[in-house]
Structure to design on (377 residues):
């Protein structure tokens, strides 16, 4: 991956993935790993979005769910639009996607990553539940939450603009590579910018969010009127914030390390940092599906609906609407099975006891009427 830096350029780096690598192992392994992460994460985020949309239609929405659906959408965009670009780059080892993708791929990925971090910070001001309106019975989600999402996305797209301005295609032998070239005249300003950018978009929001939810979890456990409900939601958001901060640390560390002009980190560390960005987007729906009660219940309902549609011979009364978590659903199914087994009887025995119970005989069909007349006397 060695390439000579032009004389009038103070900084030179690859865009859209490490290029000009030597070795068939990396060329084969990296696309497989990225595609696997992309597919699994896309399925998980689609399920989370579907469950949250169903909650909004069933009047069970909240401000936190609006932000969580935005996070799932950003994760889906990273996995479907950014990960395939890296997979193609690692496979080809040169740039084959044109100048437009070269200029926008790192900008778009950084915009989504920054938006995720800032939206998690916004969740500290969002309510976990909403009270229905007494007149209409519908949930009135405040307009400020939608405005906060829009403003966060706009700010997130403005911060990484230099990633788009300084990216360009450079010929290399018979091929073309996509690189980030920072002119020497902008070196002083960009050196200051790359100290402010990671601090404002990663360090401060992550520390603030983790500290807030740690304190909120302690308060919910010890002083809240309903500690179980509040502590569960707070723990979910704390885990999301902690996972995002930990898994994005290699990416932001290598990004700042390279942009500040220090010696380039090892290639293995750069590749690991890029993989962790997509692993973070795939891990977020796992946290929601395993820890968030509303998402877990919706996942169980989707599974029951799919299983009922798949088995056409089952009667419709077996596909009942489920409530509660997965453990309650399992317990109810076990109780129903035991009750059905208790009601089952052998046909011959049932016929025998039915005959024994029907001991009343009509007068016209009595075969021995004289015995009945003697008893009456």
């Amino acid at each position: 991956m060695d390439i000579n830096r032009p004389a009038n350029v103070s900084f030179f780096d690859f865009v859209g993935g490490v290029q000009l690598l030597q070795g068939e192992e990396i060329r084969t392994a990296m696309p497989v790993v990225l595609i696997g992460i992309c597919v699994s994460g896309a399925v998980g985020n689609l399920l989370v979005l579907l469950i949250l949309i169903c909650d909004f239609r069933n009047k069970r929405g909240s401000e936190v769910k609006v932000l969580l659906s935005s996070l799932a959408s950003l994760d889906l965009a990273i996995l479907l639009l950014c990960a395939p670009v890296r997979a193609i780059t690692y496979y080809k080892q040169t740039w084959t996607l044109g100048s437009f993708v070269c200029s926008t791929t790192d900008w778009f990925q950084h915009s989504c990553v920054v938006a995720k971090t800032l939206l998690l910070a916004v969740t500290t001001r969002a309510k976990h539940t909403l009270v229905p309106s007494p007149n209409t019975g519908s949930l009135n989600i405040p307009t400020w939450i939608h405005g906060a999402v829009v403003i966060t996305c706009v700010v997130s797209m403005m911060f990484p603009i230099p990633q788009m301005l300084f990216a360009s295609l450079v010929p290399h032998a018979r091929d073309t590579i996509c690189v980030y070239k920072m002119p020497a005249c902008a070196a002083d300003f960009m050196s200051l910018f790359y100290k402010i950018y990671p601090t404002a978009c990663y360090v401060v929001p992550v520390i603030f969010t983790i500290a807030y939810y740690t304190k909120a979890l302690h308060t919910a456990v010890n002083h809240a009127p309903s500690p179980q409900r509040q502590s569960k939601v707070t723990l979910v958001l704390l885990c999301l914030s902690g996972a995002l901060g930990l898994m994005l640390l290699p990416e932001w560390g290598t990004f700042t390390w390279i942009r500040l002009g220090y010696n380039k980190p090892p290639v293995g560390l750069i590749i690991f940092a890029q993989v962790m960005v997509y692993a973070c987007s795939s891990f977020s729906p796992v946290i929601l599906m395993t820890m968030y009660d509303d998402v877990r219940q919706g996942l169980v309902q989707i599974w029951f609906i799919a299983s009922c549609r798949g088995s056409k011979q089952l009667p419709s009364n077996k596909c009942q609407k489920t409530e509660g978590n997965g453990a309650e659903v399992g317990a109810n199914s076990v109780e129903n099975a035991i009750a059905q087994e208790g009601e089952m009887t052998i046909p011959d025995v049932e016929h025998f006891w039915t005959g024994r119970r029907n001991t009343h005989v009509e007068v016209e069909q009595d075969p021995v009427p004289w015995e009945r007349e003697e008893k009456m006397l």
Observations:
- The CA atoms of residues 48 and 130 lie 20 Å apart.
- Strands lie at 9-14, 167-172, 175-183.
- The two ends are 118 Å apart (CA to CA).
- Residues 187-223 form the longest helix (37 residues).
